[in-house]
Amino acid sequence: MRLRDHIKTVKGIRYLTEELELLSPAGRRCMLDLPMMTSATEIEQSLNRLELVLDCMKNKELLKAISEIALRLMQLRDVEGSVTAVYSGAMLTDIDLFEIKNLALISTSVAEIQTQLPHELPLLPNLDETVKILDPEGKRIPTFMVYDSYSIELSELRKQYRNIPEGDEKEALWIQISQVEDKVRRRLSRMLQPMGPALKEALDLLGYYDLLIAKAKLALTQSYVRPRINTEGRISYSNLRHPQVEAILKTRGQKFQPVSITLSPGVALVTGANMAGKSVLLRSLAVAQLMSQYGFFLPASDADIYPVKEVMLCIGDAQDETEGLSSYGAEMVRLSEICHLVAGGESVLALIDEPARTTNPTEGQAIVSGLVELLTAYSQTIAVVTTHYSSVDVPCRRLRVKGFVEEKVKLPLHVNELNSCIDYSLEETDTSDVPHEAIRIAQILGVYPDLIDRSIKYIKR
């Protein structure tokens, strides 16, 4: 899986990528093509480099060097097509030659600045020969033309062209000049072709630097922390936040309440009332896990991560009209995918929100019980399952969202203010009963009183 895939499937990842202040097309391409790392060693190496850049940004002198690199990255155009043309051996156009020259000038300039930074960062390839070929006059100007210095014949023809009057002779001379220019372009193309790998490496590394600087800036401005990486199957967060939800609440003048949680192989069954933050918890866990395995610092005060092969999220209304599936049908298909993956022996973080909630309670409860039992049977699986169903009697760890706090209610209360009355923190519980807060919340929100009274009557029965 690559980051571009998870942008489409996990809410919150797209927001994360949009928050990155990338400066170049190469940086964006590098971001989208990031592979999901599953090796603890590889993740640590990625985080080490990010921490190096972050430390540089906290140092006044080194920050100046980072800023100089950023200025040059802003000048980097989308030159992948021109680099590919160099590989092909075809005659390069003036536009291609200009793009390659500009890339080489930027790369050599960044390489010079890079000498001021820690040597642990990957070094750019030497493109001095490319610059020498495309900048024969040594002016270091980011433009290109077929210079007179490339050909004595071309230089003489151009002098003649400038000194004769308009007419057939001048037109014929122009054709001759064009033919000689093409010879020069073919020669330059042959000279540059062996440099194709170095040009590709330089473009990719410049994109990587762009992404690395953007990651560091995001971590610095948002107070993200470096996660520890373990191989013991432990996932733990203190004060975990969901960046997108936090930003939305901030626009309303509200605060996001962070959640602390520790997970280990097995199933954690989470109960809580509607609007108690169970879905946000699962999305937060998914986003943080993926961020760590794509080499980001995390929105928490402390984090300990176990890399998994797959992060499987089953959440929300999964109705797919294009496939002719109801929300229940689409949910069952997704659960089947998760079960196949788990049974295949892969290490999986499975995050499942209120499975079978749209079917009848008797069968729904049976499906949840069977699901928890199946996930528990595979030791490499870490799963969080939320539910409204009581009497799920399968042995597993149980957590409860503390939920509604009556003392915090200040009427009248708008629906967007309800979160101020809910304690989203988790507590261990040994009961399978679920909270009964739905009618009280509906009452506080001003739902039609007769409906509330009739509902209470049936609860009392």
From TrEMBL:
SMART domains: MUTSac. InterPro entries: DNA_mismatch_repair_MutS_C (IPR000432), DNA_mismatch_repair_MutS_sf (IPR036187), MutS (IPR045076), P-loop_NTPase (IPR027417). Residues 265-460 form the DNA mismatch repair proteins mutS family domain. GO terms for biological process: mismatch repair. Keywords: ATP-binding, DNA-binding, Nucleotide-binding. Pfam families: MutS_V. GO terms for molecular function: ATP binding; ATP-dependent DNA damage sensor activity; mismatched DNA binding. This is MutS domain protein, family 2. It comes from Porphyromonas crevioricanis JCM 15906.
